[in-house]
Design brief:
Blueprint lengths: L1 H12 L8 E3 L6 E4 L1 H20 L2 H23 L5 E7 L2 E2 L3 E10 L5 E8 L7 E5 L3 E10 L4 E4 L2 E6 L6 E8 L3 E5 L19 E15 L11 H5 L5 E10 L1 E5 L8 H17 L3 E6 L2 E6 L2 H13 L9
Parallel strand pairs: 4-12, 15-16
Antiparallel strand pairs: 1-3, 2-11, 3-5, 5-8, 6-7, 6-10, 9-12, 10-11, 13-14, 16-17
Length: 322
């Protein structure tokens, strides 16, 4: 009950909305408190001051106030280590479940002072803080790792940027909550044979006339386009010949979740992810059939990513999608 009340109080006191674009750490966004070392130093300074007053030690006063001034300057440097930093979330490439997503954040330090010992942690996970420095007058890219444990959208969530630089006497922090998300595909099965395609073997490729790759020369026929005449061959005395081009066409293949032999839905989706990867690697033209719709046969990186995206979001609650 007490922990719940503490969490509610923290959420009320440090409430932050989800933001996009660039965040500037102004003084309203930075919080600072003494650390345990800071409280210990304050206690020692009080004892020293009591001793100085009791024994009327002039040099003791000098040392006590010198240490107190050092602590105050340390507080200013700790605050300044975060102040006016500009932070923006750039992107996060899609990953497979079980991998680690890398959210790219840019820290722009427009001042002439370098920022040292900055640490970034995710509020929702207990992972080790990511610590780094930001040089003066530089825009530094930091890849923040976040484990991807299940398929669907993975939100970056709330981050805490904190520092104890330079002496560890004060702890300054600020909360960051970007609207950045990462697509997490199902973890594909290690090995899953492709279903049969339009030919008995369900695989293979054949060449058709096209414009992609050079396919050789043939004799000139009236009506052929002049730009396709092989002038170098004509100069060598081989007569008029025309360049031929071909396109490699893959067999058409339908990837249907109804054809998967697995009983568990997640296992079916893992098999579908493996089929998509293998079909793309073999250059096949493949389509996708799911109960909520289908994609016509095609190939290429964009088609592969869209198929994997539909598989990743299949049968997820609507609120899990952006």
């Amino acid at each position: 009950m007490i922990d719940r009340l503490k969490e509610l109080f923290r959420s009320w006191l440090f409430r932050q909305k989800i933001e996009s674009g660039t965040i500037v750490l102004s003084q309203r966004r930075i919080f600072i408190i003494p650390t345990r070392r800071g409280f210990a130093l304050a206690f020692v300074l009080v004892l020293m001051l009591v001793g100085d007053i009791n024994y009327n030690l002039s040099l003791g006063y000098v040392l006590t106030f010198l240490l107190a001034m050092m602590a105050i300057m340390s507080m200013l440097h700790t605050f300044r280590n975060l102040a006016q930093l500009e932070i923006r979330a750039v992107r996060a490439d899609a990953v497979f479940s079980g991998e680690t997503a890398q959210f790219l954040l840019h820290f722009n330090n427009s001042s002439a002072l370098a920022r040292y010992q900055l640490c970034l942690t995710a509020q929702a996970s207990g992972q080790t803080p990511l610590c780094f420095d930001v040089p003066a007058l530089r825009d530094s890219g930091i890849a923040f790792p976040l484990p991807a444990t299940r398929r669907g959208w993975l939100a970056l969530g709330e981050l805490k940027l904190h520092t104890e630089f330079p002496l560890g006497l004060f702890y300054a922090w600020s909360y960051l909550h970007f609207d950045t998300r990462c697509m997490v595909y199902p973890k594909p099965l290690p090995d899953a044979p492709l279903p049969f395609g339009t030919r008995p073997d369900g695989a293979g490729k054949h060449n058709i006339a096209g414009d992609d790759d050079f396919g050789g020369l043939r004799n000139y026929v009236a009506g052929d386009a002049l730009p396709r005449i092989a002038w170098k061959a004509f100069a060598r005395g081989r007569g008029l010949q025309v360049k031929q081009f071909i396109t490699q066409a893959g067999e058409e293949l339908w990837l249907d979740i109804a054809e998967t032999p697995d009983q568990n839905e997640e296992a079916k989706l893992a098999r579908m992810a493996r089929w998509v990867l293998d079909a793309e690697a073999q250059g096949l033209r493949y389509g996708l059939r799911l109960p909520d719709g289908e994609m016509p046969p095609e190939n290429g990186g964009a088609h592969r990513d869209e198929c994997l995206r539909r598989i990743a979001l299949f049968n997820l609650p609507q609120q899990a999608q952006p």
